[in-house]
Design brief:
- There is one protein chain.
- The chain is elongated, with a radius of gyration of 29 Å.
- Strand 3, helix 3 (70-80) and strand 4 (86-90) form a beta-alpha-beta unit.
- The protein contains 9 helices and 12 strands.
- By secondary structure, it is of the alpha/beta class.
- Helix content is 51%, strand content 20%.
- The strands form 3 sheets. Strands 2-1-3-4-5 form a 5-stranded parallel beta sheet, with helices on both faces. A 5-stranded mixed beta sheet has the order 7-9-10-12-11.
- The protein has 2 domains: 3-114, Response regulator (Rossmann fold, 3-Layer(aba) Sandwich); 144-373, Heat Shock Protein 90 (2-Layer Sandwich), CATH 3.30.565.
Length: 374
């Protein structure tokens, strides 16, 4: 095979054609050049194969076919996939077919009889786009995983804060029992009270483990849930460490039933909170009372701080990869970029950031506000 067509060996192609003579000839040639070939003899059969197999890279289809024609099949494919390359082959070059094909974003229109070199050239161009897209998707996955590692460090820090107080209570209660036993002053009332302290705080530790198990598990299944509960979970996880930094978290959240993957929502909330926390700490000497406000009303999530806002020349860059104004030890410059990707690509939502002035407890504050509309 010509070297310039070498990538065809990596393509998975769906070929839909009802004319047996034409179909067999093209099928034989394609089978030699591509990685895998699925064959269908009408639009309905082609659509069924497309819906069944997730590895199809390119669709080659005739237009005029029984049961379901090519235009209808393409229309149904486009409802779920707007980017898969589709090549139309037909002996009919009528304007109506061309217009419909263009409206459905068909990548190429080849008139029969098919010139195989032309078809291979078209497939080769499609392969370049396909593999560029796959490389970008792979990079996105790598960036997302890299940011998750950093976020995990944040969570582990919060684990320490969550466990410190109950562990201290357990240690104090156990030491008290031991000390009073050594001096012969241990009585039933103190023993029972100390045991209750130990049991209560052991339960707190257990509850914290369950919370973090939810954060670390790899459940990627979409389901219906209440976003308010996710926000409360995030709040309970970070509140102690934020309080230690004199950062007040103020919640004003209503119920909001949504459908999606929980981990995605957890990641965007914790990332935005961590970003606000870092900025507030950076301006520690300038801000006496540090706040982060979380509001959830009518499918709109708002997270804002009182750190003074983002510089005008930087506000348009905050969602760019590797952009950061913080010291490298406080982040990768990928957090907000990943948040933007998750919100727009996986949550079918929108996100924006702006500087705002607002009043709280009769005082006026200024800061950055992230708004996510689901």
């Amino acid at each position: 095979m010509n070297k310039k067509y070498s990538r065809l060996k990596e393509l998975v192609v769906l070929y839909v054609e009802d004319e047996i003579d034409v179909s067999e000839e093209i099928e034989d040639m394609l089978s030699l050049k591509v990685k895998k070939l699925y064959k269908a003899y009408n639009g309905q059969e082609g659509l069924n194969i497309y819906n069944k197999y997730s590895d199809i890279d390119v669709i080659i289809t005739d237009i005029k076919m029984p049961i379901m024609d090519g235009i209808e099949m393409i229309s149904k494919v486009r409802q779920s996939n707007e980017t898969i390359p589709i090549i139309v082959t037909t002996a009919f070059n009528e304007t109506s077919f061309l217009k419909k094909a263009i409206d459905l974003h068909v990548d190429k229109y080849i008139i029969k009889p098919i010139d195989m070199l032309q078809l291979f050239a078209v497939l080769n161009r499609a392969s370049e786009v396909i593999f560029q897209r796959k490389e970008l998707e792979q990079k996105d996955i790598m960036l997302k995983n890299r940011e998750k590692i950093y976020a995990m460090g944040e969570l582990i820090e919060n684990i320490a804060h969550q466990w410190r107080q109950p562990l201290s209570v357990i240690s104090t209660a156990a030491s008290g029992i031991k000390l009073q036993k050594e001096y012969g002053t241990l009585n039933d009332e103190f023993l029972l009270e100390a045991c209750d302290y130990i049991n209560d705080n052991t339960q707190k530790l257990s509850d914290t483990i369950n919370q973090f198990r939810e954060f670390f598990h790899n459940d990627e299944l979409a389901k219906e849930f209440n976003l308010k509960e996710i926000i409360l979970d995030c709040y309970n996880i970070v509140k102690d460490s934020y309080s230690e930094k004199s950062i007040n978290l103020v919640l004003d959240i209503n119920d909001c039933i949504i459908y999606g993957v929980k981990n995605n929502y957890i990641q965007i909330i914790l990332t935005i909170l961590a970003n606000s926390k870092d900025i507030l700490i950076e301006h520690n000497n300038d801000i006496k009372q540090k706040y982060i406000f979380i509001e959830l009303k009518n499918n709109l999530l708002s997270i804002k701080d009182n750190a003074g806002g983002i510089e005008k020349e930087n506000i348009s860059k905050v969602f760019e990869p590797y952009f950061t104004t913080k010291h490298k030890s406080h982040g990768t410059g990928l957090g907000l970029y990943i948040v933007h990707k998750i919100v727009t690509k996986y949550l079918n939502a929108s996100i924006e950031v702006q500087n705002v002035e607002y009043e709280y407890n009769k005082k006026v504050y200024k800061g950055a506000e992230f708004r996510i509309l689901f």
